[in-house]
Task: inverse folding
């Protein structure tokens, strides 16, 4: 029995990978993303000046244009931009992972409950609450929440999470409404299965593919939103390296010291681009399955 | 009749959303540590004055009563005083909002028209190099945040090839035309001041494009995919069989129903412009509501923050209703009353 399950799983992964890899751009995106993750993990080993990630001042080497010693130049404090950018990948990726880890379970469970008990009291409470949180553009909601909190990485995480959870509860809600009248759900209701079993074993597995697709795409939007928060000064504070803060600092130094703003800005674009390419592949993977 | 019923229902729902939003903002404001009365008077004010202020601000009463006072103030346009500008918040709003509104409307027009045209061109030249270029560019447009566009524009058109001004709404040597609408471009047209109009136009173009590009790319992609989807539908084939001219099929029978997803996304994106304006206004030093919003947020000026958020929430909710209406006009099949 166990080996059967394993072969089934193995076949499934093989098939999914086949569908995913048919789109070469998605494979490029995945490769790029893995490289960026490796760079973030190995940051102290691969960066030429790991010390420059923190509070380091060497005014003599300040504001140097990109050359062989400093691939992407130095900022006004003489810190190597390349090292700082690689280190800034860490909080950016961490944010993406943490926010999704907070937002997806909360949104999914609330959406499951509200959708299954549609028309009941719980549905009204949950979905009206969702509507309220969707009543503001996400960036403004995140800015508002972070404005009253202290500007730290953890608080940006909270602020961005507040802006993202309602999208998941609405997504799952709409799916559950259509799924809960399927015969297999009704049959397990008639068999007297527990509510927990019905919600998590019968309904949830059939909601997973859009959730996964949305997660890959949202990973990128979370990174953009975090960068936006720190860009306006409501996110992580210096000296911790953060892509948004670097862009904001660099914006004041344009045009002479263009490298301070442009390289971190392109890094953000590269990260989000890789995630979007992966997202397209993930979508292909699931759409093909449903056909 | 159905439309009216639908409108009323949406309006009721929107009122619930706005009420919820106001409760949320009120609670957010009270979570902040520190005495609001003390904060508005400064650290050196004597305790007596602070106590009197507390009474004036109803801070000693239960939270529900406090909310009642706060809410009835807002209804009358009284958002309290801003600690940042030391003026009533409502005065600040009326001063800064028109600049943002002008930027967002201008940018929204660019976004909608640009996205539509690019999408149509992409469909017409499907699978040629034109289509491929538009697809690549719009893909990059979607993943690039607006503040990155703003900085790239600032670098290219502000410094390297300085053909556009990069700061503010109007050059120093010009004065604002008489205020009718608050929108500089329209006011200068009303007054017939062409120089002011062109100057304002050259100021708004860079921030507006930076703001519009993301949504424009998204609209182009969606228009393209929805037109290509519809193109293989039976009704297009039957129109061809009837011998209706290709041009008419393309623009009348194919375009109109294909616009539905575009309009839905446009409605959302238009509201998102107000959010992204927060970043773009900062880069271009645009004296609008969003830059004001950032400043008051950095200063933790609660009255002003809540006013800005409530105003933007109201706009967002309104935009959603308008979008629903336009979509139901484009596709009568969509059941308005759900």
Result:
């Amino acid at each position: 029995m166990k080996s059967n399950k394993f072969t089934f799983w193995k076949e499934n992964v093989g098939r999914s990978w086949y569908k995913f890899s048919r789109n070469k751009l998605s494979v490029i995106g995945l490769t790029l993303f893995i490289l960026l993750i490796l760079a973030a993990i190995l940051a102290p080993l691969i960066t030429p000046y790991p010390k420059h990630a923190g509070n380091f001042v060497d005014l003599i080497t300040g504001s140097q244009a990109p050359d062989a010693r400093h691939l992407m130049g130095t900022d006004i404090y003489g810190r190597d931009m390349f090292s700082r950018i690689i280190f800034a990948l860490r909080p950016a990726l961490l944010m993406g992972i943490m926010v999704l880890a907070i937002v997806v379970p909360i949104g999914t469970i609330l959406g499951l409950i509200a959708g299954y008990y549609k028309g009941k009291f719980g549905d009204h409470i949950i979905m009206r609450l969702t509507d309220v949180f969707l009543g503001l553009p996400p960036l403004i909601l995140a800015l508002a929440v972070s404005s009253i909190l202290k500007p730290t990485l953890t608080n940006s995480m909270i602020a961005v999470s507040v802006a993202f959870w309602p999208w998941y509860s609405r997504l799952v809600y709409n799916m559950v409404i259509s799924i809960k009248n399927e015969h297999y759900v009704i049959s397990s209701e008639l068999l007297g299965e527990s509510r927990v079993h019905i919600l998590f074993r019968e309904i949830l597995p059939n909601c997973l593919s859009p959730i996964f697709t949305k997660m890959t795409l949202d990973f990128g939007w979370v990174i953009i939103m975090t960068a936006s928060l720190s860009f306006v000064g409501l996110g992580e504070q210096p000296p911790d390296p953060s892509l948004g803060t670097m862009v904001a600092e660099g914006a004041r130094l344009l045009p002479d010291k263009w490298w301070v703003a442009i390289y971190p800005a392109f890094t953000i674009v590269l990260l989000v681009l890789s995630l979007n390419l992966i997202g397209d592949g993930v979508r292909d993977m699931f759409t093909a399955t449903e056909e | 009749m159905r439309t009216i019923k639908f409108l009323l229902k949406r309006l009721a729902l929107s009122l619930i959303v706005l009420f919820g939003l106001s409760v949320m903002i009120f609670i957010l404001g009270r979570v902040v540590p520190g005495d609001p009365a003390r904060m508005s008077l400064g650290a050196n004010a004597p305790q007596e004055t602070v106590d009197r202020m507390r009474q004036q601000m109803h801070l000693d009463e239960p939270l529900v009563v406090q909310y009642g006072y706060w809410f009835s103030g807002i209804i009358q346009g009284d958002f309290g005083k801003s600690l940042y500008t030391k003026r009533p918040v409502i005065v600040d709003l009326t001063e800064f909002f028109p600049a943002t509104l002008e930027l967002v409307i201008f940018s929204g027009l660019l976004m909608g028209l640009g996205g539509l045209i690019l999408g149509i061109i992409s469909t017409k030249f499907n699978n040629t190099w034109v289509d491929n270029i538009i697809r690549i560019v719009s893909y990059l447009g979607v993943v690039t945040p607006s503040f990155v566009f703003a900085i790239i524009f600032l670098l290219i058109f502000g410094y390297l090839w300085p053909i556009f001004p990069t700061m503010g709404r109007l050059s120093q040597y010009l004065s604002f035309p008489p205020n009718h609408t608050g929108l500089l471009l329209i006011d200068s047209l009303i007054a017939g001041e062409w120089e002011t109009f062109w100057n304002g136009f050259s100021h708004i173009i860079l921030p507006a494009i930076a703001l519009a590009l993301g949504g424009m790319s998204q609209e182009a992609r969606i228009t393209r995919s929805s037109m290509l989807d519809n193109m293989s539908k039976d009704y297009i084939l039957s129109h061809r069989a009837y011998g209706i001219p290709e041009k008419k099929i393309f623009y009348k029978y194919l375009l109109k129903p294909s616009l539905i997803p575009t309009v839905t996304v446009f409605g959302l994106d238009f509201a998102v412009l107000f959010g992204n304006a927060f970043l773009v206004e900062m880069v271009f030093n645009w004296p609008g509501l969003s830059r004001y919003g950032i400043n008051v947020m950095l200063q933790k000026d609660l009255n002003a923050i809540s006013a800005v958020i409530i105003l933007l929430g109201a706009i967002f909710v309104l935009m959603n209703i308008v979008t629903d209406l336009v979509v139901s006009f484009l596709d009568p099949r969509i059941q308005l009353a759900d």
About this structure: Residues 36-76 of chain B form one domain. The two ends of chain B are 14 Å apart (CA to CA). The CA atoms of residues 146 and 335 of chain B lie 35 Å apart.
